[in-house]
Amino acid sequence: MNQKRIADYIRSGIKPAEKIGLELEHFIITADNKSAGYYGADGVEAVLLELSPNFERKIYSEGKLIALSNGKYHLTLEPAAQLEISIEPCESVRETEEYYRDFLRLVEPALKKRGYRMETYGYQPYDKAEELELIPKERYRFMDRYLRTVGHFGVNMMRGTASAQVSIDYTSEEDCLRKFRLANVLAPLFAMITDNSPIFEGEPYPGRMVRSRIWQDVDPARCGIVPGCLEHGFTIDSYAAYLLDAPAILIEEAEGTVYTGKKTVREIYKDREMTTEEIEHILSMFFPDVRLKQYIEIRPADSMPIEYTLSYAAFVRGIFLDLERAEKITGIAGITEKDVVSSRAELIKCGFDAVVYGRSVREILAELLETAKESLTMDEREYLPKMEEIIMSEKPLKDRYTEGRG
To answer: Residue 142 CB: number of other CB atoms within 10 A?
Structure first.
């Protein structure tokens, strides 16, 4: 019953257009290089309150303002008051940029008057995660409680990380599954080229892709690669079953947020049909590298400055506009989940010198870049140079920061 309900909800995302969605998380940093917490006269809540007249919808938790929406984009807070902008699906990267610039026009004066600034990194560059306070949201307190029991980096993930997420549409069920598989195969490569995490827990991080490493040890039941997703028999119903057979952690009821611990979603809803709101909540409680909703959410990228984020969005968009060519480049037909996991390890170890899926990473990325160039319109192609610069120089932003401090 509920497996079909969830699968049908995802299928309802099928649409003829191929728009692009973008979410970008920011750290709010004070003049003395500390995280601006949520509370206090000049906390992040005060910033949201100042911005609120510009937004039609205001969302509260425990009597505190935690989110704003104007129909074009939404401002929400991550667990330690990281500020996320989620831009509604757009026809082009150019349109996405226009909405982001509008966001800057509103938020920058409110930050500047307090001596604050926004910074974009994959991991918190100044504070240690355990020192950061959670915002007033029961969901995050329950997640924090649960994730401390199932992995080593739940605290770091919630309080210390920030991402850039690109969403793409699917035009049929077959198109959805093909794109989903390809996105999972490309996820480790996307994580490598967007590596922007030079600092971990207050110290320079000597390795690569620390945010990717954190996510692999948060909760195996809801992170990493979705089990079976590269097998030919995998369907949207299989994704629904993956959700149902894992712990929910928490659910939303009329009386508020209820902690459910290790009870599976299937157990919780065994006697009744899930509502649309319950389905949407459960979808939001899983964090694989690639997430299915009514669109495909590609999650491995670190938060980056906007010019790099838009370039990455254009790069992703261009790859998936020529799905057949991208599938040939990766040789996806013979790739297994084990191959994806080992490719991530190889990229962490060797970077651009790695060989993954039987090919040189340099060759794969160069061919994907060419695919994107040829797939995009002339206007969107103009966004690619920042990603091209990273790929051709073989230096993600993390390496440039390290060199600059060296």
So the answer is: 18
